[in-house]
Write a structure and sequence with these properties.
This protein is an alpha/beta fold. It has eight helices and nine strands. The structure holds hypoxanthine.
Length: 278
Amino acid sequence: MTFMTLDQIEAAAEFLRPRLKVRPRIGLILGSGLNSLAESVEEAVYVPYPEIPHWPPSTVEGHVGRLVIGTLETQPVIVMQGRLHFYEGYSMSQVTFPIRVMQRLGIEILIVTNAAGAINPDFVPGDVMLITDHINLIGMGGANPLVGPNLDAFGLRFPDMSQAYDRQLQALARQVAAQENMLLREGVYVSLAGPSFETPAELRFLRLIGADAVGMSTVPEVIVARHGGTRVLGLSGISNKANLDGSTITSHVEVMEAGRILTPKIERLVRGVLRALK
Ligand code: HPA
């Protein structure tokens, strides 16, 4: 297994520092189909992932694979246009390497977005769900991103996860949604390895254990963010209804298409939160 070291993290941060005009306060990860949000970044500097030392390149369709550094609502941000996934073959330590680099660059808050399947029967494609908690199903099976030598420079061997999603940031997101007259769903996100979608039996199991939305990302990044003391806001764009009775099929095309409806909604929420954080 590949464990990224503090030296590698520092080398990547060192490479990026001269490209920053100000210390970034916020890291923003854009999920499948939500890439175009990065086009809103002002005074943007683009850094393709392959240029960054030790940064594993993204391979999945719909993920551009670059950092966009600039400002959004006058807040200094680092935007990951495309993330790394476990199913691409990276170790969890590689998947979460960007979080470590952003932490070294000084971010205080991480905003994670993803495309997710709705397990909660009330949710429909196009809904946005505020993540209030997660079930790290993949991590409970052994693939926790903190497995391996503990990076003491960031945090404790056994970090608390009782409030993985920051309550104050959740409150802000609710406030913004209300101001924007936008329905904001709330719920528990469960992370699986992928890349195959779930069987109906697996989906019924996920419903039973208390999940509202299912996806193949986010949770590893959130755990590493919390390990390093970064506050987290999580938003799931509901791209499809999970198919608990086997009557419909799920496709990546569907997930990407929902992104077109979801991107402007998520942009309004993120912009509102950034404004409120001033
Ligand atoms: N399952 C898992 N991951 C997903 C889904 C889904 O239905 N939709 C988007 N990402």
